[in-house]
Amino acid sequence: MTQKTILVTGASSGFGKHIAERMARRGDKIIVTARRAERLTELAEAYPGLIKPIPLDVTDAAAVEAALADLPPEWQAIDVLVNNAGLALGLEPANEARLDNWERMIATNCSGLVTVTRLVLPGMVARGRGQIINIGSTAGSIPYAGGNVYGATKAFVHQFTNNLNADLVGSGVHASCVEPGLVGGTEFSSVRFDGNSEKAAGVYQDTQPLTPEDIADTVEWIIDRPPHVTINYLVMMPDCQSFGGQVVKRR
Ligand code: NDP
Ligand code: 8X3
Fold this sequence. Notes:
The protein is an alpha/beta fold and 251 residues long. The protein has helices at 14-25, 37-46, 61-69, 73-76, 99-127, 148-168, 188-192, 197-204, 212-223; strands at residues 5-9, 29-34, 51-55, 80-83, 130-135, 173-180, 233-236. It has a single domain, classed as 3-Layer(aba) Sandwich (Rossmann fold). A 7-stranded parallel sheet has the order 3-2-1-4-5-6-7, sandwiched between helices. Strand 1, helix 1 (14-25) and strand 2 form a beta-alpha-beta unit. The protein is globular.
């Protein structure tokens, strides 16, 4: 299999770390980014020569631009961009949620993703091939109480992916949105509940959620599709999860 160059955002934990490790084990070259530099260094040390750590905050557009421009020539031709960096903050109803949390989710999940995409895309189009894999969520299409802005950011990711494909048709570049439901084994809920591990554990109590390995399986499968196939979006849930009904408030 031809060696690919893959950029994974948010590779210091959870899905991103598993995706980076999975693809490095196959012999691909992975550029790993996140804010926690030491975690990226550990990852790079485990796969010598295959992982390039680039500490960055996706909300800092100038830093992202400088970091990508500084890549050595042999790392510049990115074949696959996995836009995974993202977070949920809080689960309060909209009238009680913190505005700064909303702003951070929008800055990270929407603006950060758009920044990295805009910087990587021209190279892919010029080379006539590439894949952009965005990590969305079932929260982008299925509302739930307290999901307010988090769900809205993932709806943005879903529709941005579709609109990328509208622009990219015939270019050899494809975009996909992977939209998981409940996934355990990551820092997602701990971040959402500001480090409250009891609350975070409660999310997964008495369930068998998806695992980051399941997400890495799916991302790897998309990467392996032949160039004539576009996976626009893919929704995945664990067996223990399904759709709920609408809410009716009766008098
Ligand atoms: P984690 O919290 O384990 O991982 C999130 C990653 O994003 C970390 O590596 C973190 O690194 C990085 N990140 C966060 N903010 C920034 C930033 N400003 N700049 C750069 N990197 C950043 O969570 P998951 O692995 O679970 O989540 C990954 C993605 O999957 C997210 O987009 C999430 O919304 C989505 N998702 C998660 C689901 C779940 O149930 N777990 C289900 C559906 C979707 P660092 O802190 O070092 O910067
Ligand atoms: C993560 C899944 O249901 O917690 O995106 O929003 S959920």
